[in-house]
Design goal:
There is one protein chain. The protein has a domain at about 55-190: Tetracycline Repressor, domain 2. The longest helix is centred in the N-terminal third of the chain and has 26 residues, at about 5-30. Helix 1 crosses helix 4 (about 55-75) and helix 6 crosses helix 7. Helix content is about 75%, strand content about 0%. The protein has about 200 residues and is mainly α.
Length: about 200
């Protein structure tokens, strides 16, 4: 029996994640049945669950993948840039074909955190990536003299994360997003260091 290359396995895993993202966004966690996951990915249940132990592991991998991609943007450009990206296209770069897919997954994570203690425990291990990337970015900005120094970095991190969650909720309700750029300008201005007399 020929060995399957790592590139092939990685491509298959990516195919499953991309198809599943659309399915979870459209139907929610409970509505994303195995049959629907098969249709969305174009693969059999055997192929899907060869890569992921069960539906919850698949959903966690998907949410972790999104968090990792967001953390990369945060490390390079900051959490406000993630919010700007959401306004211009409510999905991370190189992500799902339908703009609401990433947002739908994000909302499903929030819902399950509130209602499912077992999921909350499993997700806690993975959720620190974005927070850590934000803290590290803010620390670098402070060292460079670009960040206000009268507020603790943990407080600024919490502030930015709360703004992100508010933006996600705003978009989820279908409220207009075309007038929010000045709001994000204000958020950025709030965390910047201000020079006296300027």
């Amino acid at each position: 029996m020929p060995r399957v290359s790592q590139d092939h396995l990685d491509a298959r895993r990516r195919q499953i994640l991309d198809g599943s993202r659309s399915c979870f966004a459209r139907f929610g966690y409970e509505g994303a049945t195995v049959r629907r996951l098969e249709e969305a990915t174009g693969l059999s249940r055997g192929a899907i669950f060869h890569h992921f132990r069960d539906k919850e592991s698949l959903f966690l991998a998907l949410a972790e993948d999104d968090a990792h991609r967001m953390a990369e943007v945060v490390a390079e450009q900051g959490l406000v840039q993630v919010m700007r990206d959401l306004l211009s296209s409510p999905r991370p770069p190189r992500e799902a074909e339908h703009p609401a897919d990433w947002l739908g997954t994000r909302l499903e994570v929030s819902r399950r955190l509130r209602t499912d203690p077992e999921f909350r425990a499993r997700w806690a291990e993975r959720s620190q990536q974005l927070t850590q990337a934000t803290r590290e970015r803010l620390a670098r900005q402070r060292e460079a003299g670009k960040l206000r120094d009268d507020v603790d970095i943990d407080v600024l991190t919490s502030f930015l994360e709360l703004v992100l969650e508010g933006l996600v909720s705003h978009l989820a309700m279908g409220l207009p997003a075309d007038d929010l750029e000045p709001v994000l300008d204000l958020v950025e201005e709030t965390v910047r260091r201000h020079r006296r007399g300027s």
